[in-house]
Amino acid sequence: MKRNLFAILFTLVLAISMVACGSSSTNSVESTEKTKTDSGMIIIKNASIEQVVDDPVMSSAIIMKDGKITYVGDDDGALAQADGNATIIDAGGKTVMPAMTEAHMHFSTAIQAKYEIDIADLTSVEDMQAVIKDFIEENPDLDVYAGAGWMVSVFENNSPTKDILDEVCPDKPMVLQEADGHAYWANSRALEMLGIDAEYAKEYNAHYKENGGRIVVDDKGEPTGHLKEAAGNLVDSLKPVYTVDQCKEAIIDQQEWLASLGFTSAFDAGILTMGDETAENYWTAMSELAREGQLKMRVRGSFWVQPYDFDSFEECKEYMDGWLEKANKLCDTDYYQITTIKMMSDQVLEEGTAYLSEGMYTEGVLENEDIESNNIWAGKADMMEKVMEYAGENGLNLHIHQIGDASATFALNQLEKAEAKYPELKKDRVCFAHCQFINKEDQARMKALGVAAIVAPYWAVIDDYYWDVYLPLMNSKEQLDTQYPMQSLEKMGINVAFHSDYVVTKPDMGWLFYSAQTRVLPQKIYDLWYEDDPAYHRSTDTAESQDPKDNEESQLIGALKDWNEVLDLGQTIEAATINGARTINLDDEIGSIEVGKKADLMILNMNLRQSALEDLENVAPEKTFFEGELVYEK
């Protein structure tokens, strides 16, 4: 999908002053009128407040006390309630709004970010090798080297090879996850230790449908080191094991970083490949941090149901029953709850594994030109329906990865049957995540079936993936330009929320808000990725030619069609806050500014309504509050 901001944003977090999660917020607030607080009352005045419920007088002040919002109104009314110990913050006319919900991310990525090789945002093989070499020199005693962040667009034929890694790491195994999480890249030593040779690859690939993945081989049948989709799970036995304490340290680092970006709630879309022991330690760490009062976020988690993991629904049901028992043991606080079944309805476009309808892929992409080869639920539609019924029966949500238009149709067909038995699923219990291609008929069905759309404005742009990865896979540019129909979903009355799918993309409020309203990559991200590379040029002008013939010498990094699919500022704020909260069933507690709700909010570095659109790429929190506690201050 799209790229991450691993390098610059973690560096930024280190450079700014973070407020320790366990510290008293009232001793660290700087304001024009500050008094030492013993009452726990915090008053924010002179603010431009967004997402206020029933606000005919244009409120400018908020009072937070005992973790909740106790007043929303004018400055005089707020100051009249101040006791002698209240902390008073002058917002200086800047925007105050609810803290955001990250509606789909992989929270366990905290472990990768803290302990493993980071090759995100690197656009050449040489740069990747340099970073890997430095990591090895700094960590010479590791038995295996793991990491993440590579993008297919960097490599010839959009496929990495083992020899690139062998040049810098010939003696120890190395396994690196793709930026989108849908593939692994392994060196020769790792393949050797795993027993993945030509004979193994031939047998594995002969059953790629059942296995759910493919081992890429060269013209001689030798594995290249590129392991697609579920074939990436083959590296599990090599992955490093991290203790509960290590997981806790990584999680605390990550929640501080997320607070600096304005997020105080998130949906955890499941653990990407990290090995069973580390996975168990991660769940234990999340649970213990929540019980200890150290988890300063609300996280709603999930467990995965994949069709290729089960031969029958009876096996699948036994697995889900086990997860319900595990969830009950792990989740006894409001801060960490496992509430959801995560399902894949297909895979991803960049690997040629998205389930698109006939005529969407260009000739030669599909195995034997068989569209059904990308339907991971082929022959198991009944199992998908029964899993959905299980969710309805057991009060669980359904969170469905959906990329191709055919995958949307297939999933909705099964959901329609399940909801006939369990109509309560229509009540904010089902989400499609990613929503790259959805036809108009299925958009209407999503509305009728109560399916939310979780989208990533970060990806709804033209970048080098558009030209070098996506376009060659598609039968036409016109079909590619139907991707990410955000405004259409809004107009259909569907609940539209935002996500980054981190580790896929590093969340960033400025990037999110700018691209949602323009479908253009922000200047700061263009500079990070392309700098002065003459192969690219950036333009916000929708009149700029998007004809591939006019982009052979210098590719346009510009506005993604359909330009009418942009969101306005109000829709953007709602998608980032209340709509995201609704997808995890917390909209009655957070996501809007109203008396009685949790005091999860932030003061921004600008007034959103008075700032030029081009300035929004730099919007960020100056202060973030979680239940009235200051958890971040710039």
Structure, explained:
The chain is of the alpha/beta class. Helix 11 (313-330) links the parallel strand 15 and strand 16. The longest helix has 18 residues, at 244-261. The two termini are 31 Å apart. The relative contact order is 0.14. The model is unreliable at 1-38 (pLDDT under 50).
Brief characterization of the structure:
By secondary structure, the protein is an alpha/beta fold. The chain contains 21 helices and 25 strands.
Give the key terms.
single chain, 634 residues, 8-stranded parallel sheet, 6-stranded mixed sheet, 21 helices, 25 strands, 32% helix, globular
What's the pLDDT, averaged over the residues?
90
Largest sheet: 8 strands, parallel
Write out the strand line-up for the largest beta sheet, numbering strands in chain order. Answer: 7-14-15-16-17-18-19-20
In angstroms, what separates the terminal alpha carbons? 31 Å
Q: What is the chains' assembly state? A: single chain
Low-confidence stretches: 1-38
Topology, element by element:
Layout: H1 6-15, E1 42-45, E2 48-49, E3 61-65, E4 68-73, H2 75-80, E5 87-90, E6 95-98, E7 100-105, H3 109-115, E8 117-118, H4 125-138, E9 145-150, H5 162-166, E10 174-178, E11 183-186, H6 188-194, H7 198-206, H8 208-211, E12 213-217, E13 223-229, H9 244-261, E14 263-268, H10 276-291, E15 298-305, H11 313-330, E16 336-344, H12 381-393, E17 397-402, H13 405-421, E18 430-434, H14 440-449, E19 451-455, H15 464-473, H16 477-480, H17 486-491, E20 496-498, H18 509-518, H19 523-530, E21 536-538, E22 555-557, H20 569-576, H21 578-583, E23 601-604, E24 621-626, E25 629-633
Parallel strand pairs: 1-5, 2-6, 7-14, 8-9, 9-10, 14-15, 15-16, 16-17, 17-18, 18-19, 19-20, 21-22
Antiparallel strand pairs: 1-3, 3-4, 6-23, 10-11, 11-13, 12-13, 23-24, 24-25
